[in-house]
């Protein structure tokens, strides 16, 4: 299934920053069993506002395909609020349409729009899309991350600067940025020397600081994944799309808006998925990551 990113940010990127934080808050409410209209209405299609029309979506968008775990449906039925609704993946597997309860997710970095830059593989993985082995990590048991595609992960900057000790967070196709708990975000900002840009809401660095920018290292289940400096940049060819300035250098790491230790301390969003092939494996209760030919590419 080909995927096209939505990068038409009405009102500039400040709106998306707000939407990302609001989405995270909506995810927490959803995990707590509360109804969350915000989750459906904002952020999930990687843009801040979904235009309302006769269908409730903008032109060319027919709906939202949710690929979250089945327990997210708990509490949506009445009178049996403990019942769940089979997901698309569950139904496809039970009907023999796919051989396994898996979804393979591939994106490559985007520097223009519109463009088809992604692919979903139902029931397995597309071996042509990754270059290294797929390493799996079990789903976290820490709530509220455990309600989603949650994993335990630590993050460091460069050789030894700790950004986030091992903690729970989620991998989320519906979030655009790499979101970190506020204290981790502050450590990243200090390590990079970045300043908050008032026009975009993103962190901004100088060309000299970019030359000294170091990789981020994500470690989960004993395997470390390098997120190279270029992967930490917003594509400069799309600066004007977010209300930024031509030639400025913006970072895609943003503030989650809550402190660490609350059970959902990071969101590995779309910008992370652009660099690593990802597998949501319902049958084995795990998430997998693998390198692609774009993992280390200087494209942004």
UniProtKB/TrEMBL annotation:
One GO MF term attached to the UniProt entry: aspartic-type endopeptidase activity
GO biological process: proteolysis
Keyword Protease: yes
Keywords from the UniProt entry: Aspartyl protease, Hydrolase, Protease
Keyword Hydrolase: yes
Matches recorded under PROSITE patterns: ASP_PROTEASE (PS00141), PEPTIDASE_A1 (PS51767)
One Pfam family, short name: Asp
InterPro entries (UniProt xref): Aspartic_peptidase_A1 (IPR001461), Aspartic_peptidase_AS (IPR001969), Pepsin-like_dom (IPR034164), PEPTIDASE_A1 (IPR033121), Peptidase_aspartic_dom_sf (IPR021109)
Domain Peptidase A1: 1-290
Similarity-based family: Belongs to the peptidase A1 family.
Protein name per its UniProtKB record: Peptidase A1 domain-containing protein
Organism, as annotated: Sphagnurus paluster
């Amino acid at each position: 299934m080909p995927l096209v990113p939505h990068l038409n940010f009405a009102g500039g990127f400040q709106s998306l920053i707000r939407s990302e934080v609001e989405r995270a808050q909506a995810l927490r409410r959803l995990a707590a069993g509360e109804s969350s209209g915000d989750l459906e209405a904002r952020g999930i299609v990687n843009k801040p506002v979904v235009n309302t029309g006769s269908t409730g979506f903008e032109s060319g968008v027919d709906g939202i395909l949710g690929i979250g775990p089945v327990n997210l449906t708990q509490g949506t039925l009445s009178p049996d609020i403990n019942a769940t609704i089979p997901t698309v993946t569950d139904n496809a597997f039970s009907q023999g349409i796919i051989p396994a309860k898996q979804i393979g997710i591939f994106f490559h970095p985007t520097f223009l729009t519109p463009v088809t830059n992604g692919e979903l593989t139902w029931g397995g993985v597309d071996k042509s899309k990754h270059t290294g082995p797929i390493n799996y990590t079990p789903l976290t048991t820490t709530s509220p991350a455990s309600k989603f595609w949650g994993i335990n992960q630590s993050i460091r900057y460069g050789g030894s600067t700790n950004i986030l000790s091992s903690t729970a967070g989620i991998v989320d196709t519906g979030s655009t940025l790499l979101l970190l708990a506020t204290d981790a975000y502050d450590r990243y900002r200090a390590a990079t020397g970045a300043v908050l840009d008032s026009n975009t809401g993103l962190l901004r660095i100088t060309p000299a600081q970019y030359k000294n920018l170091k990789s981020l290292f994500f470690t989960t289940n004993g395997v470390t994944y390098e997120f190279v400096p270029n992967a930490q940049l917003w594509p400069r060819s799309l600066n004007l799309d977010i209300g930024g300035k031509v030639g400025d250098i913006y970072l895609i790491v943003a503030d989650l808006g809550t402190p660490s230790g609350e059970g959902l301390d990071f969101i590995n969003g779309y910008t992370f998925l652009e660099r690593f092939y990802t597998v949501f494996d319902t049958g084995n209760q795990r998430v997998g990551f693998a390198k692609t030919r774009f993992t280390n590419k200087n494209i942004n």
